[in-house]
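Table S2 (text version). Query chain:
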Amino acid sequence: MRALFAAAALLIGIAGAAQAATLDDVKARGSLNCGVNPNLQGFGARDAEGNYAGFDADFCRAVATAVLGGPAKVTFVPLSLKERFDALKSGKVDVLARNTTWTMDRETAMPLRFAGVSYYDGQGFIVKKLLGVTSALQLSGAAICFQTGATTEANVEDFFREKNMTFVPVRFETLDDLVKAFDEGKCDTFTTDVSGLYAVRLRLKNPDEAMVLQDVISKEPLGPAVRQGDEQWLNIVRWTLYALITAEELGITSVNVDEQKATSNNAAVRRLLGVNGPGGASMGLDADWAARTIKAVGNYGEIFDRNLGPSTPLAINRGINALWNAGGLLYAPPM
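Corresponding structure-token output:
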């Protein structure tokens, strides 16, 4: 019996060490390696000064702040569709924050875990206005551009089969080649997540000559992913996302977080900001992890508005990415 207890204790110790591996590696390195899409404006592309900017880039900064204390402690790793999963599996990146759809196959056939949904999206189509098309139902027989390595072509196959429509696939390895082909009229339409279509439209020679159709043919829940087998790290990434969402719901912003921490009597606010409760101890973080993260990058709404909202070139409305109590789908479990 004593031997069994000893063996069990050894296994628990080994499991605990394995689970803490990513957090330990990040702390030892002093920087979070975060995979982003370098070609998607508003999410992870470089700005005019050469710095990574966007919704996904700011989430990387949020995780870095929670773990390492500051938003600058990120090494951004640009990844293509083809590279993204291998980069995560191999340990090249600690977090994949690159507009990636959460699917059963990806989470069961690959050694990945999705930490949550950071952006609710759906697949759509962009067309030149001269084509005279106002609905995806008018695209039968169209030449459609696809980027290889995505789920987009399978979604179109399903949709067109159901509607008894046909299409001609035109495939490209890179987004740059795809945008060039669409610009030059080598395909009638390009399809990807609607958020991506708004970004692609801005890269065209004449953006005003193209429009995104209203049709949405799939569910595309996008979110950050980590490697399987490291529950502690999964919890850190997951609850960083939920902290940003919860902060918006509670009215905590980058501007008022210090005041809220010092004066609020709201129990949920005090738990989130580490005044009461266990704080981040159960994840290996300190009590101030959420407060400093919100102060550094803002709450979910601030991040959305800064990178994607109506005052940005993409001009995307919150829509279903509004909070659950404002008519959207965004919902975080209680802390």
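Notes on Table S2: DSSP finds 13 helices and twelve strands in the chain. Residues 231-250 form the longest helix (20 residues).
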